[in-house]
Write a structure and sequence with these properties.
Length: 657
């Protein structure tokens, strides 16, 4: 299963099963020349590690060691000196195994394995779709990690969005290994682990910054490279391995005027490009959009415009993790003499973290308690809230449907939804917007105004990073299938050889060496559905039953039989849920179903064994379903309950007087 057969002559044997990404002809001749004693063609020069950490200006620095007792061991990345990573041993390939995030946007997770070492980049989750009723979240399949647990050296996180850290509580309950990520990322992870009651004892959380280089096991060095994105402290990674350098873009955009002044470290990408990058794993989210994405600053200008015009209260809904957006809302509020209050648990939590890290610039009297908003005039209020995706329990949804503890929407309120709908989630958002309008509010959302910009690179930004990095091989990641294909086309337009671009699926094992990349195997990587404390797969009977129930309702039939004779001793009692609405009609249909059921049982007689055995048979249910379908056009789920009664007992006890 995990055979590593590159360069050992048995590739042909597998060729009917494996997809092969060939090397560009030029490199091939290089490989041919070197023969078995392959020299290292990719990174000719050893470069010095960038192991300096620029001090970040912070108002208040958190003291990780102080929190270590209560919240796991938090330390700062050690700047280890660079190790070799120049010596490709023929036959020993790097394995890249995406366990989530390909063919989808969500639950990003990739394992990198060399020899006895394995590291994991991101452990994300995704949200359930409409075919997963009742499911809380969807996480990657950890089977491969479970099988190779002894090799696990650490988890590296690119940033703190749910699709990159959301599955960590499930992962860390099962596996123990150190976790590395940016400051904000690590703080969000700590919060998440506490929320999910994951014991933090012994979990080592390490904060990393731009330029930090961490060594994991004997074979991996990981360098953090700052990028811009819709959450603070986002990083791309340069992963040095014995076969060459792999650059993982993480989620990124190029913002020349970011809110905190820290632009993406393009210079470093250029240096890596010069050094020679073997593999580039690059996000594909906005590959369909031409040009450059607007700067986050752009949103600040839009806020200024709307804040100046608004006469009543202003309510802004955005992602709580978007600290830069939060900062811009606070700045606009202060500019127009308004106080800010926070609504929604995660908004309050993330604000607390960001503020304690010095990421928020706010005057002491700007922030007020949401319970005290009635003490201020409407035109001095900004409510910063969660609920931009109309999540059912979120603060904005509760405001819209009159169930918020402190805020009732009133005429004259201006509500700004500062986020794009997550694809497929438009309906509930529009339902909330309609409700807000009904209450007399004025709603500004994406289709009307520039109150949101994407945190993901548009096509030209992707091209810029490609041009700087000039990778030998490419895996487009973080995208639905069409996006991965468009990314491939784009890379080909930039001159990459089609054979060097790997469109992978979750679970593919890609074997990579300086000469070729090919899929050699596949591991199970089906989505795992978390339902309360249970985990299940997409074909689980529980899920199918729920879908069936939600579509067709349920008919329950209670049968009472004589425990001695096995005969039915009274007519079946029928009930239903989610099937019929009118009471009269209900009684009539229930009566008809009872009669049909009795007739089927009588017909069957003793030929089909006991009544219990007969009701277990598929034919019985199918007959009943067809009968119900002929009456009301639906085939509901059928539940049979059988009670056995010892009729002789009553005879003996009461006699027949
Ligand atoms: Zn992200
Ligand atoms: Zn993402």
């Amino acid at each position: 299963m995990q055979s590593d057969n590159s360069g050992n002559g048995n590739q042909k044997q597998k060729s009917n099963k494996t997809h092969r990404f060939k090397i560009a002809p030029k490199k091939k001749s290089q490989a041919a020349k070197s023969g078995n004693n392959a020299k290292k063609p990719v990174q000719a020069k050893q470069i010095k590690t960038v192991s300096k950490t620029r001090p970040v200006k912070q108002k208040k620095q958190i003291k990780p060691e102080r929190q270590s007792k209560a919240a796991g061991l938090i330390s700062q990345a050690k700047q280890t000196s660079r190790i070799r990573h120049q010596d490709y041993v023929p036959g020993k390939d790097l394995k890249i195994i995406p366990l989530g995030g390909l063919g989808e946007i969500g639950k990003n997770m990739t394992a990198f394995e060399y020899g006895n070492d394995m590291i994991i980049v991101d452990v994300g989750m995704s949200f359930p779709d409409e075919n997963m009723p009742g499911v809380d979240c969807v996480i990657p399949d950890f089977t491969y990690v479970r099988r190779n647990q002894s090799k696990l050296r650490g988890i590296v996180l690119t940033h703190g969005h749910e699709d990159h850290i959301g599955s960590l509580p499930y992962f860390l309950r099962e596996f123990q290994c150190p976790v590395y990520g940016g400051t904000m990322t690590i703080e969000l992870v700590r919060l998440k682990l506490q929320d999910k009651n994951v014991p933090l004892d012994g979990i080592k959380l390490t904060t990393c910054r731009n330029g930090d280089n961490i060594r994991l096991g004997n074979y991996f060095d990981v360098e953090f490279i700052r990028v811009n994105h819709s959450i603070a402290d986002s990083y791309a990674l340069a992963i040095r391995t014995p076969v060459g350098v792999v650059v993982h873009s993480g989620d990124f955009k190029i913002d020349f005027t970011p809110i905190n002044g820290k632009t993406i470290n393009l210079q470093r990408f250029g240096e890596l490009g010069k050094e020679g990058v073997l593999m580039f794993m690059c996000e594909s989210t906005n590959i369909e959009i031409d040009g450059f994405s607007p700067s986050e600053k752009h949103v600040g200008e839009a806020f200024s415009h709307y804040f100046r015009k608004a006469e009543g209260r202003i309510i802004v809904a955005t992602f709580s993790s978007h600290v830069h957006r939060m900062q811009q809302i606070i700045a606009a509020a202060e500019k127009y003499g308004r106080h800010v209050c926070l609504s929604g648990r995660s908004m309050v939590q993330v604000f607390g973290i960001a503020n304690s890290m010095g990421y928020i610039d706010i005057k002491p009297d700007t922030l007020i308690d949401i319970e005290s908003i009635d003490n201020y005039p409407d035109d001095q209020i900004v409510i910063l809230t969660t609920g931009s995706q109309a999540e059912p329990m979120s603060a904005l949804t509760r405001m819209a449907f009159d169930s918020h503890r402190s805020v009732d929407i009133q005429k004259g309120d201006t509500i700004i939804i500062s986020a794009d709908p997550i694809p497929g989630n438009e309906k509930p958002i529009y339902r909330v917007i309609n409700e807000l309008y009904k209450k007399g509010a004025h709603v500004i959302y994406q289709s009307l105004a520039d109150v949101h910009v994407s945190g993901h690179a548009y096509r030209n930004e992707l091209m810029m990073l490609h041009t700087l990095i000039k990778p030998q091989f490419l895996i487009p990641v973080h995208g639905e299938y069409r996006m991965l294909c468009l990314h491939k086309e784009m890379a080909m337009n930039l001159g990459m050889d089609e054979d060097n671009i790997c469109i992978l699926a979750n679970g593919d094992i890609l074997s990579l060496n300086p000469y070729e990349a090919r899929v050699t195997d596949h591991v199970t990587a089906n989505p795992v559905l978390i339902d309360g404390s249970n985990a299940m797969d997409c074909n689980d009977k529980v899920l199918n039953d729920r879908i069936h129930l939600s579509e067709d309702g349920v008919v329950s039939i209670a049968l009472t039989i004589d425990s001695v004779s096995g005969d039915l001793i009274c007519p079946p009692s029928v009930n239903s849920i989610g099937l019929l609405d009118s009471a009269d009609n209900k009684d009539a249909i229930h009566g008809a179903i009872a009669e049909k059921c009795e007739a089927l049982l009588t017909q069957a007689g003793r030929r089909d064994g006991s009544i219990e055995a007969f009701t277990e048979k598929r034919a019985f249910r199918e007959h009943l379903k067809n009968f119900i379908s002929s009456k009301i056009g639906r085939k509901p789920m059928i539940l049979c309950n059988i009670s056995r009664i010892d009729t002789d007992y009553y005879d003996r006890y009461y006699g027949d007087t």
